[in-house]
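Step 1: inspect the first sequence and its tokens.
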Amino acid sequence: MKGIVLAGGSGTRLYPLTVSTSKQLLPVYDKPMVFYPLSVLMEAGIRDILIISTPSDIGKFKQLLGDGSDFGIKISYEVQPSPDGLAQAFIIGEKFIEGDACALILGDNLFHGNDFNHMLREAVIDAERGKSTIFGYPVKNPQRFGVVEFDSEGNVIGIEEKPVCPKSDYCVTGLYFYDKNVVDYSKTIVPSKRNELEITDLNRIYLKKKSLKVNLLDKSFKWWDTGTFDSLIEASDYVHDHYVRTGYTINSPEQVAFNQDWISKEKMLALSVRYGNSPYGAYLKKIAEGKSNEKNNDN
């Protein structure tokens, strides 16, 4: 299974923070934002990952992430010349995907919750068997998102992009697991009024073919689209509070790799040195040296 992190766009809602840098490189407490979606794909067991970003920012991601070997994975890079829709990621990544099933996560999405690892692994298995999965989450402002519509028995019967009158408060989050047909289906999408290849239209194709599963996340689960000042602060506060309360950070790609035996203790110690005297470097050293009773599974 392949994975894509879409880290493009201009991030205008975060101006002036993003005038000179990518939104996905902004800090969310102790890590760059892109570490969080990257960790989600790694938690799903995906080790072949494509980063898509803008022509001006792609070099910064290469400098930060390299070839992925620090995380026990392989990272490739492609450029999205202009933000022409989320579904465009699969067309840009066609050679990378090579006809395999593929997951897509948006570079500004942060997920955390109990049993999430199991949900991710299940979504991978389903996609490889021809059943695609998206995730729904209840929000106060569904008008900003793609919204899931249900019938009287709770079955998903529709998905609508940024509706004026939403038919539910469940939005579609920025995490998608698709089967091997995703590139072919993406090529059939007609640009919307915004002149974008909408991910909602791709989801509708799968829904029409009765091969789309919507996994609903409840309020005990945490999800942020960190594209606004408020959500960026809320996500940072959550990661900070979790660390203070438990002694563990969340969505650390180095720790995910270490927990899954993709990198060795020696590699973790070397990575801790890379980050100098920072608390994050000290944290990786603590994990590598086993100062906790066991490897943490709550990432």
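Step 2: inspect the second sequence and its tokens, then contrast the two.
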Amino acid sequence: MSSHLERILANTRIEVSARKAAAEFAALEEAAAAHTPRGFARALRERAETGPAVIAELKKASPSKGLIRAEFEPVALGTELEAAGAACLSVLTDEVFFLGGLENLRRVSAAVKIPCLRKDFMVEPFQVLEARAAGADAILLIMAALGDEDLRVLRDTARTYGLDVLCEVHDQEELDRALQLDCECVGVNSRNLKTFDVSIERAVELASQLPDGVVRVAESGIASRQDVENLRVAGFDAFLIGETLMRQPSPGAMLRELIG
């Protein structure tokens, strides 16, 4: 595990513990019950039948790149990307390292019709309740972050709350573990968590190992229409794209260009 990831996970556990201690569980359960999950994996499968299914990511900053988009209005960005053809949205909710927040997810989910992924470092079932209460339709599980038993508990909790799971892997060993979890979606992240270097070749190498029964998602490093086409040829159904969109004056225009 990288020092970057260790630092983020340590901070996440502290923050989650504090939020859980202060939480009004009845209110959270009520908010969770008020949100009907919209079928994250289904939306990606249906879009992939006719063209690239893009998960457009709302990302203000990252540990590796610093500030990515200074003028960051989540609802305006989310509705623009929905109109431009995004199949789903990914909303960063980590506050310290990505300058995101659950309130961003809550506002964006309420403003769009397409499914939303809570993009965060999930370490504790309480976060799954938070996710649905904030309008999430899916959560991310990072194989490099946790052991198999913890991941299984989080997956089971997601299913209890009717949320899909995107399992993120970086190499063959993590992929083998992810397939045992039977997640709806498996994402191959081209970013090396130890160095933060990005190599799309890493995703292409693993593409042939992804079974037909899952939604196959390529993550990170997608910067052009050609990248999307190459990854589709390799076997990917969907594409999680954040920085490439967020650095553009008009993310919607860039998304249209990537989709073709």
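Step 3: confirm your contrast with the notes below.
Residues 4-259 form a domain with the TIM Barrel fold (CATH 3.20.20.70). The two ends are 38 Å apart (CA to CA).
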